[in-house]
Amino acid sequence: MKKGLSLTTVMVLAFLFIGGLAVYQIMNNATKYDKKHKVEATATVKKDAAEEKKEQTGYIGGVQYDINLDKSSSQEAVIEVMHKMTHQKVKAKEKWGAIPMIPDTINQVYQIVNNSKFPLKDDLLKILEKWKKGDFEEIADDHNYFWEQQGGTVGKANGTMTKAEEEIFIQNNFGDEVAKQTSTQQ
């Protein structure tokens, strides 16, 4: 009987030993797997962030320097100009066209709106007055207001660019002259 008990004991111990090794190996492999995937995930996040920055600050086309507005311009034309002005400051999946957001441009648009009889005159003046003061805290909301007025379906603003991102956008889209004007404004 002692011999049978010993054999059973040896078998149980062997089973526990093999089971322990198996659990250890599984846990070790899981740790290696987690580490590998965390590194890959971090690399993907960094790559995505770099692509996002390039997407937001790259050349978008449709750049214009002259607002092409005068006292007879329509409310829709003014909204289109103001919308394009916001593109240098907002993050959006798609952007079409850009006009420099500089004091001279803001003042030109302000004068046209101030002397108009537009149905949205009060809303537009409120936005322009913030811009004249250098207040761009709500620029994404301003963008989306114009976007909605124009019946937008793609390109809703989802945030505001950092100062550094905006500087890159300005350089890529408007060049040195506008970059100088905006650096004195900030």
UniProtKB/TrEMBL annotation:
Top-rank taxon: Bacteria
InterPro entries cross-referenced by the UniProt entry: DUF6241 (IPR046208)
Protein name per the record: DUF6241 domain-containing protein
Organism from which the protein derives: Bacillus xiapuensis
Organism ancestry: Bacteria, Bacillati, Bacillota, Bacilli, Bacillales
